[in-house]
Amino acid sequence: MSGRGSRITDEEINELVSKLQSLLPESRRRNTGRVSASKLLKETCSYIKSLHREVDGLSDRLSGLMVTMDSNSPQAEIIRSLLRS
Description:
Layout: H1 10-23, H2 25-30, H3 37-68, H4 74-84
């Protein structure tokens, strides 16, 4: 990205950091005002990793349920339809 028109201003960066902070559960609960962009990015990475672990765990549980469930049951059909979405 070169040229003047493509530069992001400090104000835009601050706005993006503020929006990101509002999306993180820890930052919302803490509500201590400004956090450094570096710390916020680290928290974001940690949060995304925890979400990945949660998804993996839920996926494993769902796979286990599917193995034990009658494939023609209404519950199995609901799960299949959710997975297709």
